[in-house]
Amino acid sequence: MQFNLGERVRTRLQNPEGHTRLPAYLCGRIGRIERVIGAFPFADDRACGRGSAAQMLYTVCFAGSDVWGDDAQAATISADLFESYLESLA
Questions:
Q1: Domains and CATH numbers, the chain
Q2: Alpha-carbon distance values, 19 to 5, 26, 45, 47, 73 (Å)
Q3: Closest Cα partner for 23 from 88, 63, 78?
Q4: Which three-class secondary structure string do you get for 29-88?
Q5: Distance between CA atoms of 10 and 26, rounded to whole angstroms?
Q6: What residues pair up with 88 in beta bridges, in sequence order?
């Protein structure tokens, strides 16, 4: 599933064994697609020495208060995340 610029998404709750490019503090958080970067080899597979098909990569922006609580109201967090880390809220 490809996501569109401005679309609201939630990061998947996951705790895989080994490498992942999804920071634990962003798991299960709601954000918005800020930029569609394009297709890249899936880094998690490559880090484990496996070949990988390309996945779409997106910059997702999160409100700081949604991640760190009310103390971070003015903050925003942007992360480049692979498509398989995301689910649509539509």
A1: 8-88 (2.30.30.50)
A2: 27, 15, 8, 7, 30
A3: 78
A4: CEEEEEEEEEEEECHHHHHCCCCCCEEEEEEEEEEHHHHHCHHHCCCEEEEEEEHHHEEE
A5: 9
A6: 9
Given a contact cutoff of 8 angstroms between Cβ atoms, the answer to whether 72 and 65 are in contact is yes
Residues 12-51 pLDDT 10s: 987 766 667 899 899 999 999 999 999 998 877 766 666 6
Q: What single-letter amino acid sits at 8?
A: R
Residues 6+ apart with CB under 8 A from 35: 5, 58, 59
**Closest C-alpha to 21, from 53, 4, 1, 46:** 46
pTM to 2 decimals? 0.86
